[in-house]
Amino acid sequence: MQIDGRASFSRIAEVLGVSDRTVARRYERLRAAGKLRVTSATDSDLSGAAEWVVRMRVLPHGTDVLARALARRPDTAWVTTMSSGTEIACVFRVPDGGAVPLAALARHP
């Protein structure tokens, strides 16, 4: 699915050498367990948005709270924790010429 997010269950089954019903069952189990989520993203070049990749060092006890807050923002496209929980990396998508929320991030420890 990383290669072709629109691949049908029958195409995936063909590549894996299993039945399409097996793929459908496995997909549904992963989705129901919250381990799989299919999303889409617009092409930033076509939508007129700028992408900012931000990497920040944080205090370990605040990493989860900050990462969750970033993930809830409408301008955050992607967020992850790194380096055993002492860094966060994220991608912001903002309208071309729009402000990146760096001032708001600077208030966090």
General description of the model:
A hairpin with a 4-residue loop joins strand 2 and strand 3 (87-95). The protein has 5 helices and 3 strands, in the order H-H-H-E-H-E-E-H. The chain has helices at 9-16, 20-32, 44-47, 63-72, 102-106; strands at residues 49-57, 76-82, 87-95. Strands 1-3-2 form a 3-stranded antiparallel beta sheet. Helix 1 (9-16) crosses helix 2. Helix content is 37%, strand content 23%. The chain is an alpha+beta fold and 109 residues long. The longest helix has 13 residues, at 20-32. 6% of the residues are buried. It is flat and about 50 Å long.
Brief characterization of the structure:
37% of the residues lie in helices and 23% in strands.
Please write out the topology.
Elements: H1 9-16, H2 20-32, H3 44-47, E1 49-57, H4 63-72, E2 76-82, E3 87-95, H5 102-106
Helix pairs in contact: 1-2
> N- to C-terminal separation?
38 Å
Label the overall shape: flat
State mean pLDDT (0 to 100 scale).
Answer: 83
Q: Which bin fits the share of residues in helices? A: 25-40%
Number of strands: 3
Strand order of the largest sheet: 1-3-2
Summing up helix and strand content along with how strands pair, one would put the structural category as alpha+beta
Query: What is the alpha-carbon Rg in Å?
Result: 18 Å
Please summarize the sheet with the most strands: 3 strands, antiparallel
Low-confidence stretches: none
Count helical runs: 5
Query: What is the percentage of strand-forming residues?
Result: 15-25%
The ordered string of helix (H) and strand (E) elements is HHHEHEEH
